[in-house]
Write a sequence for this structure.
């Protein structure tokens, strides 16, 4: 598979905080021209040397404007100039009991975490296909592989994008495009302050939900750094033959090995207990 090269252009969604910011810096330091996206690019704090574009994955109209934004930065999308590395990072962390999740919340999390990421990918694939090289990396979550109570909508959105990615991997490899998913575990990025929460505080799930969320926040405060995740993301960027799945944090090698040996309910029980559930 043809390599992508320093000096070419990488696009990172959600590049002003957390994993997105860290991977934008890693790509910049590796010699790529880096374009990042933000919902508020004019007020956002971009890493030095990273150009910001406006993009709101919750808004299909914003995604439709992305090709024009890329052209305004001199990217034709053809073989002689376009994005050759795409890191689909921007997303929403949603929480709530399945019985209490409103339709609007479900539509939002799948629009941002799944549909929006696929649509952004579609906007740059023609250029990659014409140049016959590229790397597309989707930032998933270990919760896409290991479901956790009260995190069903989030985990399902990440599992859905993983399946899209695995299917696209076969479709695109003949054009020199590598597609991979990176599934982080617990990460210390301050995400707990930005979660969306849908729960009736006086309802039947409130007590257990609160326990889960408190333990989730604690686990993430002790998690790996965004820079460690960025280092993992760089592996499929630079690999001659990128693997389909990379996982990092939360004892990922042990977790995936155990999942091959233990019944599904046993793995679910281990994860539940780690989050204070019985």
């Amino acid at each position: 598979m043809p390599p992508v090269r320093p000096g070419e252009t990488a696009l990172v969604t959600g590049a002003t905080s957390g994993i997105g910011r860290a991977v934008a810096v890693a790509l910049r330091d590796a010699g790529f021209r880096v374009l990042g996206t933000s919902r508020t690019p004019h007020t956002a704090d971009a890493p030095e040397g990273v150009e910001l574009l406006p993009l709101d994955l919750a808004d299909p109209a914003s995604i439709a404007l992305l090709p024009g934004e890329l052209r305004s930065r001199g990217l034709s999308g053809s073989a002689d100039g376009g994005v050759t590395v795409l890191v689909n990072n921007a997303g929403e962390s949603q929480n709530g009991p399945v019985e209490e999740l409103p339709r609007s919340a479900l539509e939002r999390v799948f629009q941002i975490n799944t549909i929006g990421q696929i649509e952004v990918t579609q906007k740059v694939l023609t250029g990659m296909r014409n140049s016959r090289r590229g790397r597309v990396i989707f930032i998933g979550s270990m919760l896409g592989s290991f479901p956790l109570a009260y995190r069903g909508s989030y985990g399902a959105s990440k599992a859905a994008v993983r399946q899209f990615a695995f299917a696209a991997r076969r479709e695109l490899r003949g054009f020199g495009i590598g597609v991979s998913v990176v599934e982080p575990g617990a990460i210390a990025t301050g995400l707990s302050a930005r979660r969306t929460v849908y729960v009736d505080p006086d309802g039947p799930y409130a007590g257990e939900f609160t326990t889960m969320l408190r333990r989730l926040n604690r686990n993430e405060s002790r998690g790996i750094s965004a820079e460690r995740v960025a280092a993992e993301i760089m592996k499929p960027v630079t690999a001659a033959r990128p693997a389909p799945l990379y996982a990092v944090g939360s004892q990922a090698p042990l977790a995936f090995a155990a999942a091959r040996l233990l019944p599904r309910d046993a793995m679910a029980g281990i994860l539940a207990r780690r989050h204070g559930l019985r």
The longest strand covers residues 177-184.
